[in-house]
Design a protein that fits this description.
Helix content is about 85%, strand content about 0%. The protein contains ten helices and no strands. This is ABC-2 family transporter protein. It comes from Alkalibacterium subtropicum.
């Protein structure tokens, strides 16, 4: 499994370490810090999301190179193959969160628009959202390869639209959240995130085995 993880890291490293990518990302973040202090965290998030979306290239490259067909001829279990990809995705989410936390720390030191605690809470929210995004998208990547992102996003937008159109859904959700404590909201969020991750992982294994 370590070999699978290193293989994915190597492919991402080749993409991330391209001079044009490094220079552009660095310039954008620095410009945000110096000239757009109020929007710097949003700029940092935008760059981080680009990092996360490069995960899709792994699935595209696997299809083009025939990697999946090759690895299925080995004794490596589907569980280990999927687990390595999820582990890499979580590492990428943590790395991008670290970038945002660093930008938040610099913003707090230079401008103090928000308190340090508020900036760190924003970084934690970013980590949660990126994990949800990755957990939702990976099964679509396995199922639809390069079209997975488009199909996954469209489906999520459709579900969100239908939920917003459900009578009383928004008001009931807001009322419920207001009736419980912050610690309870956090606990519910963690449980839901773990359940989503488990469901996503199981779905990816089933799709992978079916396509194999």
């Amino acid at each position: 499994m370590t070999g699978l993880l290193l293989k994915d890291l190597y492919e991402l490293k080749k993409l991330w370490l391209q001079p044009k990518f490094i220079v552009t990302s660095t310039i954008v973040i620095i410009a945000g810090l110096l000239f757009f202090s109020s929007s710097a965290i949003l700029i940092s998030i935008f760059v981080s999301v680009f990092f996360i979306n490069t995960i899709q290239t792994l699935f595209v490259n696997d299809k083009k190179s025939g990697w999946i067909l090759f690895v299925q001829t080995t004794n490596i279990s589907s569980f280990k193959i999927i687990y390595a990809r999820y582990l890499l995705s979580i590492i990428v989410c943590l790395a991008t969160t670290l970038i945002n936390a660093s930008v938040s720390l610099i913003l707090w030191f230079l401008y103090k628009h928000l308190s340090l605690k508020e900036y760190l809470i924003l970084a934690l929210i970013f980590l949660t959202v990126t994990l949800i995004y990755v957990f939702i998208m990976i099964p679509f990547f396995y199922a639809f390869d390069e079209n997975g992102l488009t199909i996954g996003v469209l489906l999520c937008v459709l579900i969100a639209f239908l939920a917003s159109r459900t009578p009383g859904f928004s008001s009931q959700a807001i009322t419920y959240l207001q009736s419980i404590t912050t610690s309870q909201i956090t606990l519910i969020g963690v449980i839901m995130l773990v359940l989503l991750g488990a469901l996503s992982f199981l779905s990816s294994i089933l799709v992978f085995q079916k396509k194999g």
